[in-house]
Write a structure and sequence with these properties.
20 strands, Rossmann fold, single chain, seven-stranded mixed beta sheet, Quinone Oxidoreductase, Chain A, domain 1
């Protein structure tokens, strides 16, 4: 390859992000070399930048950041038959071992040997060029843009969460938290047939965006509101109890509300990761046979997410509020970290051909 410029965003430690040149990687036999296009900033990226860790995952050595991404195939390994140079792809960032019982059963996201972009010590993909296993690169239809391709990663979280909750036509759904994951969960729930969807948050602009994206009801959580107040308001707005509640915050109060407000026989699905231990009113949920389910990333959900966007059932473009070139990565992360300009999804463009 003639190209030599592989500008890369590397996290060295807390609030220490640097742009540097890295060698252009060489694809293995089952991999493709990608010219990276759009890379979104995720809340986890900010968490690593600000705290240097998420739970047991600690940034102990320089790590390339980024995992919500799309790219264009430049070169294929000799065993790759599913893709060809010029193909535009969404990149599923987690690759399992393929041989453990979880991988073989299709639950590869639970693989104990999972290699996931920008989860220490694994490098991410915010660079001009990047290699990835071809079978975790999904070709984008002609009417799906590269920006939308990058958003298949968060959208897959929402799709997976709604599959776990078994959302279907006629369901009454509560979503707690209107950040990017709450919003994609809302989009997925409505596309899967939820008849009523109420979403909560503490920020007016997020709730306004949720309304724009199809929320039937919004509820702003004020500081002085008790759990009882919140439960009453949810029931009053919906006119009934939700039979499915999806928490996208990880906040103890929100999880407690979800457990209490969900209809008997319903489902609480926990997407947001909060404190390792929480105090929850479980007995009341158990005697009403409310199921409580966890969500971790996604598996086999990219094709569904892509088809939802291709068919027009879901519009993810409205989530993108800011665009930056890779040279301005530090500014992009500053925007995402501080919330200046009310960002929802900040998109970084990895190659110089990008134009607004």
């Amino acid at each position: 390859m003639a190209a030599k410029d592989n500008l890369t965003a590397v996290l060295y430690g807390i609030n220490d992000m640097r742009l540097e040149q890295r060698p252009i990687p060489v694809p293995k036999d089952n991999q493709v070399l990608l010219k990276m296009e759009s890379v979104g900033i995720c809340g986890s990226d900010i968490h690593y930048l600000v705290n240097g860790r998420i739970g047991p995952f600690v940034v102990e050595k320089p790590m390339i950041i980024g995992h919500e991404a799309s790219g264009t195939v430049v070169l294929c390994g000799k065993n790759v038959t599913s893709l060809k140079p010029g193909d535009r792809v969404a990149i599923e960032p987690g690759v399992g071992c393929r041989i453990c019982s979880f991988c073989k059963s299709g639950d590869y996201h639970l693989c104990p040997e999972m290699v996931f972009c920008a989860t220490p010590p694994v490098d991410g993909n915010l660079s001009r060029y990047y290699v990835h296993d071809a079978d975790f690169c999904f070709k984008l239809p002609d009417n799906v843009s590269l920006d939308e391709g990058a958003l298949m990663e968060p959208l897959s979280v929402g799709v997976h969460a709604c599959k776990r909750a078994n959302v279907r036509f006629g369901d009454v759904v509560l979503i707690l938290g209107a950040g990017p994951i709450g919003l994609v969960t809302l989009l997925a729930a409505k596309a899967m047939g939820a008849t009523k969807a109420l979403i909560t948050d503490v920020v007016d602009i997020r709730l306004a965006k949720a309304k724009e994206l199809g929320a039937d009801y919004t509820l702003k959580i004020e500081k002085n509101m008790t759990e009882e107040d919140i439960v009453k308001k949810i029931k009053a707005l919906l006119g009934e109890e939700p039979n499915i509640s999806l928490d996208c915050t990880g906040a103890e109060q929100c999880v407690r509300v979800a457990v209490q407000v969900t209809k008997s026989g319903g489902v609480v699905t926990l997407i947001g990761l909060g404190a390792f231990e929480m105090k929850l009113p479980l007995t009341g949920a158990l005697i009403r046979e409310v199921d409580i389910r966890g969500v971790f990333r996604y598996n086999n959900d990219y094709p569904t997410a892509i088809e939802m966007v291709r068919s027009g059932k879901i519009n993810v473009k409205a989530l993108i509020t800011h665009h930056y070139k890779i040279e301005d990565t530090l500014k992009a992360f500053h925007t995402s970290k501080t919330g200046e300009g009310n960002p929802i999804k900040v998109m970084i463009h990895a190659n110089p051909e990008w134009k607004k």
